[in-house]
Amino acid sequence: MSHPSPPSAAGRRTIPLREVTLPHQCPRPVRMYVLARAPYFRGLSEAELDVIDRRMRTMSVPADGYIYHAGDPADALYVVAEGSVKVAQVTAGGTETVTDILVPGELFGAMGTLGEPYHLQSASALVATCALRIDQDAFREVLATYPRVGLRVLDDVAARLARAHADIGGQTTDTVPQRVATALLRLADKLGEDRGADGVLLEVPLSRADLAGLARSTPESVSRVMSRWKKEGVINSGRRWTALLDRRRLEAEAAGVA
C-alpha cells in the first residue's frame, strides 16, 4: 500500500472540513439540513424543523475562538452547522484536555434544565465554524410542543452516563495503543475521507496533546505509539493530517487482539 504524500507547497491538496469564511450566516438550507441530522430532531417534518429553526440563533466563530468556557453558566444548546468544534476539559493543572471533536449535525452544550447549571467543559472552534444556538426558554418550548424530542433527550442523557462509565472502565483496563486506535477510528468515522488504496485521510489540525486527550493518555505515550505505527505502515502523518493506512490493524489494536 502506498503512503499518501504530504501536500506540496506548490499545489497543496486540502480536504474540506466545511470551514467557513467569516463573517458568515448559515443559509436556511444548511440550517434545515443539519437540524434534520441532529439526534434530538431527527425524523421531524420540515414544518416542525422550521418551527425549531425560528427559535435558533446563528453564531460564527473564528478558528480557536471559544463558544463557552468551563465554569460558564449553562443556558443553551448548540448544533454544529458548518466547520468543527473541539470540546475540552480543564485539568487540575489548568491545561485543556480534548474530550471530543464535533462535526455538522452534532449537538453540544448544557442547560440547568437538563441538570447542568454550569459548563463542565469548554468548547472552541477547531476551524472557522458556524453553529446554531437555542436558549433554555426556547428549548423548553420545543420540549413542550414535541414530546418526541423530550424522549430523545432522556435517551441521550442515559447514553452519556453509560459512555462515561465505559470510559472510566476503559481507562483503567485498556492499553495506550487500544485507546489511541479507538480515538483514531472514531475520528475516521466522523471526519475521514476514504482514499481507497491510500487509506482514510484525516486533515484535522490536532496536536499530539489533542490526540492524547481523546485517548486519555499522555502526549509522550501517544507519540511513541504513533511513531511505531508509522514505521510499521499502519498510519502516516504530516503537520496537519493523518492517514489511516491499515484500518484492520487499528481495529485489532482497539480490540486488544493485535
Describe the structure in your own words.
The protein is globular and about 55 Å long. The strands form three sheets. It has a four-stranded antiparallel β-sheet with strand order 1-8-3-6. With 258 residues, it is an alpha+beta fold. 40% of the residues lie in helices and 22% in strands. GO terms for molecular function: DNA binding; DNA-binding transcription factor activity. Residues 40-160 form the Cyclic nucleotide-binding domain. Residues 174-248 form the HTH crp-type domain.
Summarize this structure briefly.
The protein is 40% helix and 22% strand.
Write down the oligomeric state.
Answer: single chain
Shape-level CATH architecture of the largest domain: Sandwich
What's the CATH C level of the largest domain? Mainly Beta
Mean pLDDT: 85
What's the number of extended β-strand segments?
12
Distance between the termini: 19 Å
Q: Low-confidence parts lasting 5 or more residues at pLDDT below 50?
A: 1-20
CATH superfamily of the largest domain: Jelly Rolls
Return the string of H and E elements: HHEEEEEEEEHHHEEHHEEH
Number of helices: 8
GO molecular function, one term: DNA binding
GO cellular component, one term: cytosol
Pfam families: cNMP_binding (PF00027), HTH_Crp_2 (PF13545)
InterPro entries: cNMP-bd_dom, cNMP-bd_dom_sf, Env_Response_Regulators, HTH_CRP, RmlC-like_jellyroll, WH-like_DNA-bd_sf, WH_DNA-bd_sf
